[in-house]
Amino acid sequence: MNAFADGELAPAQQRAMAEQLAGSPEAAERLRGIVRLKQELQALPAGDTPPLPSLPAPSRQGWRRVAAIAAVLLVTAAVALAPMLLRQDASESFLAASLAAHEQFATTSPQPVVTIAPAAAGPVSSELARLGLQPVWQATSATGQVRVGFVGLRGCRLSLHVSPHTESAPSSDQSTGTLAGWSAGGHGYLLIATGMPPARFEMIAGFLRALTSEPADRVAPMRTALLNDWRSAQPCLA
Predict the structure, then answer these.
(1) Closest to 96 (Cα-Cα) out of 194, 40, 163
(2) DSSP reduced 3-state for 121
(3) How far apart are CA 8 and CA 139, in angstroms?
(4) Cβ(179)–Cβ(190) below 8 Å
(5) Phi-psi category of 146—alpha, beta or left, where left has phi over 0 and alpha has psi -120 to 50?
(6) Which residues contact 89 (CB under 8 A, 6 or more apart)?
(7) Which pTM does this prediction carry?
(8) How far apart are CA 97 and CA 151, in angstroms?
(9) What is the pLDDT along the chain (238 residues), one digit of tens a residue?
(10) Which one-letter DSSP state was computed for residue 164?
(11) What is the Cα–Cα distance from 17 to 11, expressed in whole angstroms?
(12) Distance CA 119, CA 24 (A)
């Protein structure tokens, strides 16, 4: 679990751990504790602390004043640190749950094409349909995360995960050739693929990132370029 928190696991091991975390609240809580501890340790100043000057012992009233000041500083630090930890926990939960959901989707038989209802994923679905990627699975979590799965003509699997909040992008250790994340318009996005060449995946990820964040007049020429490049790119491997 320490290696997962540090981003040191291989992609297959990350997916296995993410699936375990998604199904075990106890394991997810242990991971959050590890992340908090690492963040607190990283916040400590480096090097040895210089010796403190010798001071006369404070009176009982002085000790009470010191204790009161320490309590105020502790509460202030906790209030400042809590939102950061909550955002970090939420981003890790979104990534872990999305990896586990994609793994399950990638190993199940394709279903008939479904109609994508959520507004956050609808425009993306129509763009992917132009490339021959058809929606065959969708789900919405209790926290409002939308997940849509697509299947290509050669059987590759692509899943889009949309969070109702902005999310931290995967770190360089977590990112692979078929995993991309970004935030735009108040939403967090994760795109994951199985059986798709990295170059082909990067075409889609780059275009969808622009589609969700750039004005329509800038997206139009990128759409034309994508369609032209898509025909000549290495086909899916699945």
Answers:
(1) 163
(2) coil
(3) 30
(4) yes
(5) beta
(6) 32, 35
(7) 0.60
(8) 20
(9) 777 666 666 666 766 776 676 667 677 677 777 777 766 776 666 555 455 555 555 555 654 554 445 444 433 433 343 343 333 344 458 899 999 999 988 888 866 666 665 555 667 888 888 888 888 888 888 888 999 999 988 889 999 999 999 998 887 655 566 899 999 999 999 999 999 999 999 999 999 999 999 998 999 999 999 988 888 888 786 5
(10) S
(11) 10
(12) 30
* DSSP-assigned letters across all residues of 28-40: HHHHHHHHHHHHH
Terminal Cα distance for the chain, rounded: 31
Amino acid at 186: G
Residue of 120, 156, 119 whose CA lies nearest to 136: 156
Which tokens belong to 31? 């991971």
